[in-house]
Amino acid sequence: MLKKSVYPLFFIPLFISGQALANEAPIKVKVFVGSMFEIGQNTGDKAGEFQYWYEKYFKNSQPITVKGAASPVFCNDNGVCGSVLGMGKVASSSSVQAILLNPQFDMSQTYFMINGVAGTPPSRGTIGDVSWGSWVIDYDLGHRWAPAEGLHDGQTFMPRKGYENIRSYQLNPTLVSWAMKVTGQTKLLDSEGAQKYRQRYPDDNARRAPKVLTGTHMTGDTFFHGPGMSKEAQYIAKLYGADDYLVTEMEIAAITQVIARTQGTTQRVFSLRGSVNFDQGNPNETTLEHLDPAPGQTAGGFKETVENIATVGGEMTDYIVSHWDTWQNGVPALK
């Protein structure tokens, strides 16, 4: 009798719980927001890449644990979901794959808002800029050697055969054009510290106020710095037939490859980056001095830039969600 009374009490609740989970419909995701890191908590402290998104979209959402993802996923009632993916190619792309393959989510019509901070060459961008990637390129898929061992087209890089289909992706030009139409005139925040720091550089683009623009986003697992590496990034961009190199970051090419494999398309991918540093020092400092600045000699503008990213990306996210009838089946023609 004792065994019969214990058996149903122990097993029935588990059985019902499993059935409930199995029968629950997946969350229909309209826009997925992927950031790379958060400094502390998702709200209430110094903001990293995800905090402003969290406070706008997910403050009342419950975390959804996904096996294999770096952090929980949050979803609101309007079909916007988001997560902190982890920094670098492996951490971020493995998180995206785990989320995409998880049956709790229906991402068959999802737009991917992949965003974070970045560096920019002073000849083309400045601190506080927000840019939409027109191309994403993997900086690492090739051969490199020491300059003393000879140059190839004036560079120490040569692409390796076999990577042609994954080393670069042109993101949907119509989607990028829509992003500029919706957000191109957005007023961006700036800081006094960034304004002073810009004046160290002679370039007109480095000295100007921040704005929204487009260009090639270059993905590398190393934080490459210096005019030589910057020229190499531009060389690779032009070698692959892409737009001018505008941003150096660590994730989007790998994430785009995962999306291409699992979704069969990259037509709904956004790469959104805000520039928090220059990819090289000014003419009066060495690359090492730029990498290891004296106290009080950093660029400034980080807080304003991460807020700019969420502001610009949020405008596009809200536009898609509020016009879902015309966006759910694909990117509308731009009129």
TrEMBL record:
<dbReference type="Pfam" id="PF06516">
    <property type="entry name" value="NUP"/>
</dbReference>
<dbReference type="InterPro" id="IPR035994">
    <property type="entry name" value="Nucleoside_phosphorylase_sf"/>
</dbReference>
<feature type="signal peptide">
    <location>
        <begin position="1"/>
        <end position="22"/>
    </location>
</feature>
<dbReference type="InterPro" id="IPR009486">
    <property type="entry name" value="Pur_nuclsid_perm"/>
</dbReference>
<protein>
    <submittedName>
        <fullName>Purine nucleoside permease</fullName>
    </submittedName>
</protein>
<dbReference type="GO" id="GO:0003824">
    <property type="term" value="F:catalytic activity"/>
</dbReference>
<dbReference type="GO" id="GO:0009116">
    <property type="term" value="P:nucleoside metabolic process"/>
</dbReference>
<keyword id="KW-0732">Signal</keyword>
<dbReference type="GO" id="GO:0055085">
    <property type="term" value="P:transmembrane transport"/>
</dbReference>
